[in-house]
């Protein structure tokens, strides 16, 4: 497998805060904070325990306590609804016009939670994905992703809807955020953006035996894998069906889907719902959602440029996919070719 080199046009950091908004001037915010990929990878995808929001973990208790303490330590900060997911947290927080600024409050919360998690000595969490005799991670392992996603909540109705979402279904709400300098709207688990991502692309005239082998490989893919694709061509859809497979003995891989439609009007396919509920799927909205060839090329280009590795079961000679891969020759030397 190979990884891409640093590309300043893609990987440079930009502020994800809303320009012109006074974050020290008070407001209500919906916050999503993701675990760092180092902690996620060490804990087999579940650094905060379990595979859903209802699992019990001492790490989750520590994080929830530190969220509440954010308000106990400051007279102008009022933490609200909060949930700890397996690899990220969601919370509502209100800040009065005063001394506190949102970024400082979130930074202090992350630092305090990190200190408590490390103070346990082994950083182990209460779930089955890390065996009891697993060597502890390095003491310097990063617990949190560098930044966080936010939404400014402007109406009581929006606040009530978000609070209900946090309590009941922490994957359904359309979220706003920025990754690698680009703004996104998304549904699902935003922490997947921090995983090592495998671009999966396959030309539509894939040979039947090649597709059968790809489907078998997809069915055997485990939770350490994170696939990124538009899943648009018929072979890609067939491979997605195989990736979505899960039973009592097989935990499926993580999936980032870039569909050819907007998320406001989309009807989530029923077969996607288990993956969303299992915290292993993210749906990203593309800028160009037209169903034409130009939009398909932009979507495939996005997938290639934002992946770390590549899997292409079949590439048609002289087709659009081959041309895009030739523009990214280093990535093409990755897996599956």
Q: Can you offer a commentary on this structure?
A:
The chain has 337 residues and is an alpha/beta fold. The chain folds into two domains: 17-171, 2-Layer Sandwich (Alpha-Beta Plaits); 198-332, 3-Layer(aba) Sandwich (Rossmann fold), CATH 3.40.50. Helices cover 32% and strands 18% of the residues. The protein is built from eleven helices and eleven strands. It has helices at 8-11, 37-42, 58-72, 102-119, 156-168, 208-219, 234-244, 273-277, 293-305, 320-327, 329-332, and strands at residues 27-34, 77-84, 88-95, 149-153, 175-179, 182-188, 198-200, 226-229, 254-257, 281-284, 309-311. The strands form two sheets. Strands 5-6-10-9-8-7-11 form a seven-stranded mixed β-sheet. Strand 9, helix 8 and strand 10 form a beta-alpha-beta unit. Helix 6 packs parallel to helix 7 (234-244). It is globular and about 65 Å long. The protein starts with 7 loop residues before the first helix and ends in a 5-residue tail after the last helix. The model is unreliable at 1-16 and 332-337 (pLDDT under 50).
């Amino acid at each position: 497998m190979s990884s891409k080199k640093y590309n300043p046009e893609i990987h440079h950091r930009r502020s994800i805060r809303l320009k012109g908004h006074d974050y020290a001037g008070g407001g209500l915010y919906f916050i999503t904070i993701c675990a760092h990929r180092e902690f996620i990878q060490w804990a087999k995808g579940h650094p905060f325990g379990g595979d859903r929001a209802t699992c019990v973990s001492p790490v989750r208790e520590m994080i929830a306590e530190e969220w509440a303490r954010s308000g106990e330590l400051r007279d102008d900060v009022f933490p609200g609804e909060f949930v700890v997911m397996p690899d990220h947290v969601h919370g509502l927080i209100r800040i009065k016009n005063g001394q506190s600024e949102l970024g400082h409050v979130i930074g202090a919360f992350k630092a305090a939670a990190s200190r408590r998690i490390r103070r346990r000595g082994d950083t182990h969490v209460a779930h089955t994905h890390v065996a009891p005799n697993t060597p502890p991670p390095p003491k310097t392992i990063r617990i949190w992703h560098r930044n966080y996603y936010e939404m400014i909540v402007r109406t009581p109705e929006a606040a009530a809807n978000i609070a209900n979402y946090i309590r009941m279904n922490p994957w359904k709400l359309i979220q706003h955020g920025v990754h690698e300098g680009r703004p996104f709207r998304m549904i699902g688990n935003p922490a997947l953006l921090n995983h090592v991502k495998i671009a999966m692309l396959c030309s539509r005239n894939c040979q039947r035996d090649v597709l059968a082998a790809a489907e078998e490989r997809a069915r055997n893919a485990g939770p350490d894998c994170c696939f990124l694709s538009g899943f648009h061509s018929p072979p890609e859809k067939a491979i997605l069906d195989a990736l979505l497979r899960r039973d009592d003995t097989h935990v499926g891989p993580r999936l980032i889907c870039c569909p050819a439609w907007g998320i406001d009007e989309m009807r989530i396919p029923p077969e996607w719902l288990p993956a969303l509920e299992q915290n292993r799927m993210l749906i990203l909205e593309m800028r160009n959602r037209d169903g034409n060839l130009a939009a398909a090329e932009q979507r495939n280009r996005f997938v290639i440029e934002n992946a770390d590795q590549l899997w292409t079961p079949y590439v048609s000679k002289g087709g659009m996919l081959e041309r895009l891969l030739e523009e990214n020759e280093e990535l093409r030397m990755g897996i599956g070719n």
